[in-house]
Write a structure and sequence with these properties.
Length: 221
């Protein structure tokens, strides 16, 4: 896995981003970090920087707002409590890493489905709320499809022979009663991507992905 940290020169949020990345990457020797500095709008576009700092995981921006353009502006992030900060939180970064480990390219690409699925899931992971329908349509429109049609396929199953996308887009998300069982399964399925999450890491990932639904003591809206 490759992480790129892209900032403007002397970005004030750069050190905080580095600190939180170090926390999120503890025990992850498989990850390499590249650092880029964008001083011009052309460099920002070339590096995929949607404001400084931008964190890319395997070339993707897991925190990008649909339709956001590349720019040299300061970038703000909202944490799981709704606070605005200059860098993504360590828990948010761990969740993004775990999501990439699980199935980086499993969402179907045909018919614009991958783009719409990812926009919906990433928005929910960031805010705990569904993405506004108009924002989803803005993601789907450049691909020549409607978000409504993509979501209908997700619910009803429009991929020939496979069934509903919800059942097939992540074929290697599995749950085990013990770590020994998980390790035995992984040893017998060497073609399966991803890695085994411990209970606490899985809980953190779930809280970041599903927000208030899994956080004890947070009132439901």
């Amino acid at each position: 896995m490759r992480i790129e940290v892209v900032t403007v020169p002397e970005c004030p949020s750069g050190p905080l981003t580095e600190q939180r990345l170090a926390e999120a990457l503890a025990g992850r020797p498989d990850v390499t970090i590249e650092r880029r500095v964008a001083a011009t709008a052309e460099q920002a576009a070339a590096y995929g920087m949607r404001g400084s700092p931008t964190v890319l995981i395997d070339g993707r921006d897991p925190f990008a707002v649909p339709g956001a353009e590349t720019s040299l502006s300061c970038r703000l992030y909202r944490d799981e409590h709704g606070r605005v900060e200059g860098a993504p939180g360590a828990r948010q970064l761990r969740a993004a890493l775990a999501a990439t480990d699980c199935c980086p390219d499993e969402a179907p690409a045909e018919g614009g489905q991958r783009a719409v699925h990812q926009a919906a899931l990433r928005a929910f992971a960031r805010t705990g709320r569904a993405l506004d329908p108009a924002a989803l349509e803005a993601v789907a429109a450049p691909l020549g499809v409607s978000a409504q049609a993509v979501l209908a396929a997700l619910a009803a199953g429009a991929r020939a022979g496979d069934g509903p996308s919800a059942a097939v887009c992540c074929g290697y998300l599995r749950f085990f009663a013990t770590s020994e069982n998980a390790e035995a399964f992984a040893a017998g399925q060497p073609e399966a991507p991803g890695r085994i999450l411990g209970q606490q890491e899985a809980l953190t990932f779930g809280e970041e992905t599903f927000g208030p639904l899994l956080v004890t003591g947070v009132p439901r809206r």
